[in-house]
């Protein structure tokens, strides 16, 4: 089993209301929300979109009013009957190739939810607004892994250079949109990070662009392997700019006090 598979298969005894637990519960691989700003809808939160799709998802009110004619109703569109065609412009070419269907629900004039490759359900629609931004491991779980002499690896990650490189490349002459775009791109990257480092591993966001990570493993895993697998993971979002992500490996710890401080647990 590869490292990414092992990361996604870790124990899910985390906060049940966290976003990554929500994604795993419903087996979601691509979902995003569009918020209404000044006659346009912009992606405000996502999981499963790449950088180009986040940018291309920006769309006019007229576009949505013509296709999603009612609030509080599920609309489904499919590749098989080509009803999905008007929505392909919202996705990068790479993501278009993976789309078989999209399911759409308008909560209000201000908020539209889009789910890819599976239909929305009442449970997803009602659960989505309630989920928290981050998952949190229980310290008792971490202590159990310390007692078992598992390897508790500490490292930090910083997306600043990677994200700013993409923003500058795509929106050099639109500073206000660039800042909004970068914010959503950071959230996509952090959501993926939290998804793959679920409890008992943990992610603590330390700034808008950086995080500390506790990665628990039964056996020794080389830093080079962790690094290469994470670059592979994030290249699906940022492409070649994934090479600009900064990593800092800080060794291992078996001190719950040190780990609490590292994870910013008060």
Structure description:
- The strands form two sheets. The protein has a six-stranded antiparallel β-sheet. Strands 8-9-7-10 form a four-stranded antiparallel β-sheet, with helices on one face.
- It has eleven helices and ten strands.
- The chain is globular.
- The longest helix is centred in the C-terminal third of the chain and has 22 residues, at 175-196.
- It is an alpha+beta fold.
- α2 crosses α9.
Task: Jot down its keywords.
six-stranded antiparallel β-sheet; four-stranded antiparallel β-sheet; 38% helix; 266 residues; 10 strands; alpha+beta
Low-confidence stretches: 4-14
Helix percent reads: 25-40%
Rounded radius of gyration (Å): 19 Å
Strand content: 15-25%
Structural class: alpha+beta
C-alpha geometry: globular
Spatial arrangement of strands, main beta sheet: 3-2-1-6-5-4
Report the major sheet.
6 strands, antiparallel
Residue-averaged pLDDT, rounded?
Answer: 89
Tell me the distance between the termini: 35 Å
How many helices in DSSP terms?
Answer: 11
SSE pattern: HHEEHEHEHEEHHEHHEEHEH
Number of DSSP-assigned strands:
10
Give a short summary of the structure:
With 266 residues, the protein is of the alpha+beta class.
Please write out the topology.
Blueprint: H1 3-8, H2 19-25, E1 31-37, E2 40-47, H3 51-56, E3 59-60, H4 61-67, E4 74-78, H5 93-96, E5 101-108, E6 111-116, H6 122-127, H7 139-147, E7 151-158, H8 160-171, H9 175-196, E8 202-205, E9 210-217, H10 223-238, E10 246-252, H11 256-262
Antiparallel strand pairs: 1-2, 1-6, 2-3, 4-5, 5-6, 7-9, 7-10, 8-9
């Amino acid at each position: 089993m590869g490292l990414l598979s092992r990361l996604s298969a870790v124990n899910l005894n985390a906060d049940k209301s966290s976003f990554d637990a929500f994604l795993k519960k419903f087996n979601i691989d691509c979902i995003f929300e569009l918020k209404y700003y000044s006659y346009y809808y912009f992606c405000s939160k996502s999981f499963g979109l790449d950088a180009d799709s986040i940018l291309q998802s920006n769309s006019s009110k007229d576009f949505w009013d013509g296709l999603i004619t009612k609030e509080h109703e599920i609309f489904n569109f499919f590749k098989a009957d080509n009803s999905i065609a008007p929505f392909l412009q919202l996705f990068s070419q790479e993501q278009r190739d993976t789309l078989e269907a999209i399911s759409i629900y308008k909560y209000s004039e201000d908020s539209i939810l889009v789910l890819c490759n599976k239909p929305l359900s009442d449970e997803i629609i009602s659960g989505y607004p309630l989920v928290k931004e981050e998952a949190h491991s229980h310290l008792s779980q971490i202590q159990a892994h310390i007692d078992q002499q598992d390897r508790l690896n500490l490292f930090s990650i910083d997306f600043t250079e990677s994200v700013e490189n993409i923003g500058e490349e795509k929106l050099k002459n639109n500073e206000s949109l660039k800042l909004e775009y970068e914010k959503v791109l950071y959230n996509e990257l952090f959501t993926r990070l939290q998804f793959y480092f679920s409890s008992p591993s943990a992610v603590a966001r330390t700034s808008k662009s950086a995080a500390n990570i506790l990665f628990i493993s039964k056996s020794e895993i080389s830093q080079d392997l962790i690094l290469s697998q994470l670059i592979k993971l994030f290249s699906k979002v940022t492409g070649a700019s994934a090479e600009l992500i900064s990593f800092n490996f800080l060794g291992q710890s078996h001190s719950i006090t040190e780990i609490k401080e590292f994870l910013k647990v008060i």
